[in-house]
Known about the structure:
CATH topology of the domain at 2-45 and 117-300: Rossmann fold
Number of strands: 9
Largest sheet: 7 strands, parallel
Protein name: SIR2 family protein
Helix content: 40-55%
Pfam families: SIR2_2
Strand order of the largest sheet: 5-6-4-1-7-8-9
CATH class of the domain at 2-45 and 117-300: Alpha Beta
CATH architecture of the domain at 2-45 and 117-300: 3-Layer(aba) Sandwich
InterPro entries: DHS-like_NAD/FAD-binding_dom (IPR029035)
Distance between the termini: 45 Å
Number of helices: 25
Shape: elongated
Amino acid sequence: MPGNSFVDEPHVQRIEKALWSREPSGTAAVLVGAGFSRNAVAARAIAGSMPGWNDIYTEMVSQLYPANVPTSAATRQWLLQQTGSTSAYLRIAEEYEAQFRRDGLDKLILRHVPDQQFEPGELHRQLLQLPWADVMTTNWDTLLERAGAEVEDRVYDVVRTAEEIPEARAPRIVKLHGSFPSSRPFIFTEEDFRTYPTRFAPFVNLAQQLAMENTLVLLGFSGDDPNFLYWSGWVRDRLGAKAPLIYLVGALDLSSSKRKMLEDRGVQPIDLALLAPFPTWPDTLRVQNANQWFLERLRAAEPYPSRRWPRPQAGPVPPLELVAPRADLSAPPEDSGLGNGDLETKIRRLVEHCRLTRLTYPGWVVAPIDAANYVWNGLRHRLIEVASGLGRLPPEERLEALYEIDWQLQVSLVPLRLALGDQVTGLLDELEPAFQRLDGTQADMFRALALSAVRLGRETGDEELFTRWANWLTPHVAHRPEERDQLTYERCLRLRANLQLAELETQVSAWVIDGDPFWDVRRAGILSDLGREKEANELSARALNEIRRRTTRGANDIASWSRESYAMRPAGSSPRLIEMITASDPQGSGCTQPVRLGRAGDIAHHRSGRCGSPDARSD
Length: 619
């Protein structure tokens, strides 16, 4: 892993954290330099590669000091030896403008940076797919804005002139130094850089704000790049001791003295040339792979996107073994059972997949129907093999397997009786005498399955099953608010289904909730069914306020948002108890079980309109 061998790994991790710190954009901004344009793709084979500072500098020297003029030979030779020198770049550009006027310099730039002969490369798209707060660039070409138009999840406003700043909304692509074809001047000469803070004060102010509010990453610059020296120096001069750390990223090949100089100036280099096998690659390949490695690392740090749950993440394989693998929740092929290997291995593989899916669940009260169907379609073809093979596993492994599969069934809105009800109740009977010897995690799984057995007894009308495990759970969940509330709710639903209204009044009145406020919403639903509308609505309002208070700000808190959406439904909007019983069976199947808020099994019971059918959930 990178942390074991790469000296700049902690700084990469800091950028990752800033980039993914909030939705929809993080707290990292990027400044893109000319080196990144080398990742462009030639539209025609004869276009070659996008030129850089050295190419334009050589052309200017050749025109100012022609090789066929004897008096220019010595100067020409000396200037060519200065290729790569910042002061030489800017001074020659100044001379060129003096000799050929500004129009001549602009035409030289347009001719030697053939923007339309190149298309954005894959790395341009990868860069803009990341949630940068803003993207700034000193490049004149239009590669970034053209790549931005191809990115699906993010919409970029392009800022080419100071007049466009007020109307643009983040994320923006900010063209700091002009833009092809006509947003001029193209910042290039010594005088351009000297007068820039005055002539382009709005851009300077915008960059200052971004640098102060975000982690600033410089990509596509060398340590000698005039743009890098100018902007890093400007941040240091303007912000002083308050200047945040600037990260310079690339295959920099820095000496120890140059690294120390940059660090003293408030610039933290992340020298990707230190990563093996970079030292053995050609220069052009090193630069491209360094950029790709960095972008892949940032992309790999994305928290599992809840909007994709439970589908696996997909994407190109990172270019180096040093990239941390992205969480992959890929299940065995849906139509081929549990894959290869003996039956015990197949079940263990499925259980591990179920565990990973559960751990990344966004926390919906009821999963969206597409997600629920996806989980169920990936599970149902394997249940026969699971049922036949569970007996081969030790009891502790069976406990974990049934716990994970039962969780999947609940998310899929599939009643336990249609799948593994007998397996669950049989295992509970087997392990109950030894419950005290189970470790903490196993005890949690056992209680969860016991609660599922209580629900199974209620849904099937098995009073003996319901009573046995409800009584067993009562002392074991007394100090566990979430499990205690779940058990109380099951008791309320059973009393309601049996029309034991007096007992239901007593039970719901004695119900004290001190955990998840969403249980107050469920309790309010019961109160409403009993005709206590005012009390139900007041309780729902208090629960809604508490849910909102607990919502994590600046984060993708889907669990809280889901609870809030249900809590906003007035408790009194649900039908009265008797109305629900008489109207809940429109198909005449003989079912008298009403649909209740947030109960996966109840929703599954009704969703196909075949409540009396044993395959009520199978689609």
